[in-house]
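Input chain follows. Return structure tokens only.
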Amino acid sequence: MTALLTIQDYRLDIPTFDGALKVLDGIDLALDQGETLGIVGESGCGKTVLARSILGIGPAKGKRVSGSMTFDSVELDHLDEAGWRRIRGVKISMIFQDPMTYLNPLFTIGRQLSDVVVAHKRAKGERLPSRAEQRKRCHALLDQVQIRDFERVVDSYPHQLSGGMRQRVLIAMALAGEPQLLIADEPTTALDVTIQAQILDLLRDLVDRLGLTVVMISHDVGAIAAIARRVAVMYAGVVVEQGMTNDILTQPRHPYTQGLLAALPDIEGGHQVLESIPGTIPNLIHPPSGCRFHPRCPRATEICTAQKPVARNIGADHVVACHHALD
């Protein structure tokens, strides 16, 4: 079966006055129809740049150095703006992390959701819906994201809704074009713990009910585990480990993945000192030679400083880019 999304050896640089930021360095990922993939890593590792590049809204000055992204047999890097309009929001859609940034404070929720519905119809070359049809479609979309108080919500402005309700509205907008692939970029970051759980439950329900293919970006391992069937761990623009979620959480093989999981508190344990990964993410204008994690790695040896590790299979669906993965 051909993967819905394939990313091969993808490298992206962002030019700056001090030199090129090597923000993505040889990304290899594949995603089948109906699959859920979580991408996890600390802030600054390139998760959001990768997600936005899939949607064609990456850094304005970003330059693809090598590699390719293919969606549903279409080379994304070769699309012109007209081609992107047929895909962006229609076949690939995105949920952003801060609803107040992406909802216009000057218009009601109903107006903004109707505009999205009309825009998608126009992009598909279909007949534009009447006012009554727009309202009916808005009702159906809000019902999908479990917003039952339709009349109040459509007449409300963004500031009149709670953070959780605003996030649900963004999810409804993302579903308006009936996409094949949904990218969720830190969808629970700005929410309190209770509302986070509700949004994760909603996303799980949408995946099961609509058969969506989902890429979820987060620095929260718990949120990823709640949604994703597979996990890719990113560090400094590189995918260092990927595999089935249960395998990654119970048998991590890369020192960086092990460090991330060791930093999580155990709610069933007693008083404990949380471990941390020493150091910080490197300067990506002048990234470390060899393995990018070696300056922070407790297992680094001479080969780690001299030679970039090649990703290798250590199980049926478990890939690790580490010289010492089998030690």
